[in-house]
Amino acid sequence: MSQPASSTAVPSPLSVDDYRARIAELVPAAPVVLRPLAECLGLVLGEDLVSSVAMPPFDNSAMDGYAVRAADVAGAGRHAAVALPVPVDIPAGRTDIVALLPGTAHRIMTGAPVPPGADAIVKVEDTDGGEQRVAVRAPVAPGTHIRRAGEDVAEGATVLRAGTVLSSAQLGLAAAIGRAGLPVHRPARVLVLSTGSELVEPGNPLLHGQIYESNSVLLAAAVREIGAAPTVLRFVPDDVAAFHAAIAEHAADADLLITSGGVSAGAYEVVKDALSGQGVEFLRVAMQPGGPQGSGRFGSLPVVTLPGNPVSTALSFELFLRPALLAAMGHQAVDRPTARATTTEELRSPIGKRQYRRGQRDGSNVTPVGGPGSHLLASFAASDCLIVVPEDETMIPAGAEVDVVLLR
Ligand code: AMP
Ligand code: MG
To answer: What does the pLDDT read at residue 238?
Structure first.
């Protein structure tokens, strides 16, 4: 009989892909809620959108001009004006209905309803612009410059499918068919908690040994970039009781907790100390940077604990949380675009780990920016892609093709 693995054995690291799947499982689906249009930008439509109105709702003029019977102006020409009385003026927004009598014209503005009896619009440029009488200088075919009711959207038509990402055009359409709000996947409510007693709020002086806190700023912005809603808890000290207290206060209003720092192998690893044996598993992922990771449920709250080095934090969000949160909020496309590119420099990587180097693309070439270090935030900020060095490669020579993940 084989023995169960000893609890002191170092477990082998999880692959990037397996960990990604684990995090995707962990992040709960966001419910569909009705939201005002002004709060729907970038969110995903939760149900098909069916129009209860036709659009346009009525036949209307596509031009400023005169509503006429085409037959009445059939003989008009540049040197043979047809003069018609203009008993009615129809600005856009006029709601009463006055039929056009044969042998007359109604002055009409763009978007105004075409009167019954009229079958064409003569544009003002083809007339003398008269107010009581008008001289028409060109004939029109029946139907000219009339936008028909329902031409754009028929009543009862499905105008947007569930799963559509809402941008300006879709929100404009929703308003145009009379919707004040839409059913959307609610933005995931993400608690972003950064730990570290060495961290100082930007804008204040630093003592030796202190650094500015940046991970919560980066993570909150990354959360917002994908349409989720961050709440930031900063400057949680490396103290288990303080950590628990900070979570307890906000857990009820969060769908997910993301922490940064305090998960590696040293002492004072507050996140690890506070959450080990509490439903959160700490493990290693076979990647560089960002190896030490943790995830699970603290009570009912899904938790993902990211390593504290800024590039590790950023990359972990990028690889694991970004796709998981997007999927949870109803997005179908959750992956960044990728490309093949030729590296202009040699790349070295530890065996058994997938390395993500920061790069800048230029046409079909990619140039590494900075080294592989997880503290090189300026290099990350200067990059527009990630260069992927596979687990089984230790050296890729300059001039070889590599996979790149396009970040911008
Ligand atoms: P830790 O994972 O807590 O051991 O942190 C690893 C490294 O990342 C240390 O150099 C920390 O000072 C740094 N670090 C951790 N959290 C942050 C943060 N929120 N902002 C900036 N740097 C951080
Ligand atoms: Mg720390």
So the answer is: 85
Q: Is 73 helix (H, G, I), strand (E, B) or coil?
A: helix
SS3 (DSSP) at 328 = helix
Atom of ligand 1 nearest to the CA of 198: 12
Q: What are the distances in angstroms from CA 214 to CA 203, 224, 327, 399?
A: 12, 16, 26, 35
Which atom belonging to ligand 1 lies closest to the Cα atom of 309?
8
Q: Answer yes or no: is the C-beta of 238 below 6 A from any ligand 1 atom.
A: no
Q: Which listed ligand is nearest to 313 at the C-alpha?
A: 1
- Tell me which amino acid residue 90 is: I
* Residue-averaged pLDDT of the chain: 95
196 in contact with ligand 1, CB cutoff 6 A: yes
Confidence check: pLDDT of 33 > 60:
yes
Does the beta carbon of 214 lie inside 6 Å of ligand 1?
Answer: yes
pTM of the full structure: 0.92
| Residue 8 pLDDT > 60 | no
- Over residues 174-186, the pLDDT tens digits come to 999 999 999 999 9
Query: Quick one: 158 exposed, middle or buried, by C-beta within 10 A (0-12, 13-18, 19+)?
Result: exposed
Q: Is the dihedral of CA 217, 218, 223, 226 positive or negative?
A: positive
Distance 122 CA to ligand 1 centre (A): 71
